[in-house]
Amino acid sequence: MAVRAEPDLVTFWRHDLGDAEAAKVAEAIAQRRLSQGPITGELEARLAAYLGVAHVAMTTSGSTALYAAAATLGIGPGDEVILPNRTFIATAHAIMLTGAAVRLVDCEIESTVIDASQIERAITPRTKAILPVHLNGNAADMESINDIARRHGLFVIEDACQALGSRSAAGALGALGTFGCFSLGATKIVTTGQGGFVATSDPALHQRLVLFRNHGVSSTFIARYEHFGFNLKYNDVLASIGLAQLDRIDEYVAKHRAQYRRYQAALADLPFISMLEMPIDDGRVPLWIEAVCSARDRVHEHLLERRIQTRPFLPDLSESPHLGNDDALFVRSKRFRRDGITLPCGPDLSDEQFERTITALAELRDLPPYGA
After folding, report:
1. 179, 211, 345, 355: least buried by Cβ within 10 Å?
2. Which secondary-structure segment (H or E) carries 182?
């Protein structure tokens, strides 16, 4: 079962949803499983087993997973949290919702993840946590980050919203800190349209988190208003989709790695564009196909004229005036926001769509080599 609008448009992301997901949803509805219940519990257990952690708590999105994790740790007004300049704004907004302030750190020279060597100089007496982001499935240096956190008595909240399936030598990304936060949004390797979850192996923190996502009460049948919280609960209809998707996660991981290799080979003779390196042989899973190129806006418009959708890299957080950071300080980030582009990808990208993209890019051979 597949319904696709605008069949001639090569979209930036191609979902892979069909009969298995529809059957699971129909089953949930037939059982009158609409709100958070046993199907959500089954998805939580399977995700925990997949990541190798003791507990998973589903939430309404990756953004609320980050917010719930920070609030559960008591982060609030007067505190600071260190996070990378290269990430989606949701990472910062989740911290700001607690009343805490963000302190930004620049990225690595050749990668968009946080430069761990710059973290320590950003620590102040107000610092409560470090929030590394495993952007596009690439791993932040968790060994160094955890060492810094131990020495300074800080929490580590991993933003693994783009990293489900990715691993480092230490284990699954998102399972290496105090909390790991994930997204099941529309452009993720496992999707339920919206949704997210928090992973941890600390039973006490998990229990506090479960209370927090339900207005601070363990049961609305026997409510005792003892803790602050909010309604961040998931639901069994979406969880049923997640179970069907999770059945195929190994297949999706293999597809994403194969897609990366295919683009890498096809773009090798186009000097104006260079893919961002991803150590897929070391366990990483590229969620999206990311590259830097000469005349990025021209490349974007050229492909759009041929009905091929690309996505320019999002702005640096330091460009956001409400975060209160000096944009001039983040020299490395500027190259990625200026030159970065995401090419069509996803588990359902067809061979024909891939070839159309490569053919359109080859028409731009007159562009100067990247970095020239």
Report:
1. 355
2. strand 179-183
Q: Is residue 191 within 8 Å of residue 161, measured between CB atoms?
A: no
CB distance 97 to 310 below 8 Å: no
Q: Strand runs (DSSP E) across 146-303, as ranges?
A: 155-159, 167-168, 171-172, 179-183, 196-200, 273-275, 289-293
Of the candidates 156, 154, 164, 110, the one whose C-alpha atom is nearest the C-alpha of residue 134 is: 164
- Cβ–Cβ < 8 Å for 3, 18: no
How far is residue 140's CA from residue 193's CA, in Å, rounded to a whole number?
26
Radius of gyration, CA atoms only, the chain: 21
User: Model-level pTM?
Assistant: 0.95
Determine the distance from the C-alpha atom of residue 219 to the mean position of all C-alpha atoms in its chain, rounded to a whole number: 31
Amino acid letter at 266? A
Note the Cα 243 to chain centre separation in Å. Answer: 19
The SS3 of residue 289 is: strand
Q: Count CA within 13 A, CB hemisphere, residue 313.
A: 25
Q: How far apart are CA 1 and CA 21, in angstroms?
A: 10
Residues 139-157 as b/e (b if ≥16 CB within 10 A, e otherwise) read bbbbeebbebbeeeebbbb
d(CA 131, CA 142) in angstroms, rounded, equals: 11
For the chain, domains (ranges, CATH) are 19-246 (3.40.640.10), 249-362 (3.90.1150.10)
pLDDT tens, the chain, 372 aa long? 344 455 689 999 988 899 999 999 999 999 999 999 999 999 999 999 999 999 999 999 999 999 999 999 999 999 999 999 999 999 999 999 999 999 999 999 999 999 999 999 999 999 999 999 999 999 999 999 999 999 999 999 999 999 999 999 999 999 999 999 999 999 999 999 999 999 999 999 999 999 999 999 888 787 788 889 999 999 999 999 999 999 999 999 999 999 999 999 999 999 999 999 999 999 999 999 999 999 999 999 999 999 999 999 999 999 999 998 888 889 999 999 999 999 999 999 999 999 999 999 999 999 999 987
- The three-state secondary structure class of 47 is helix
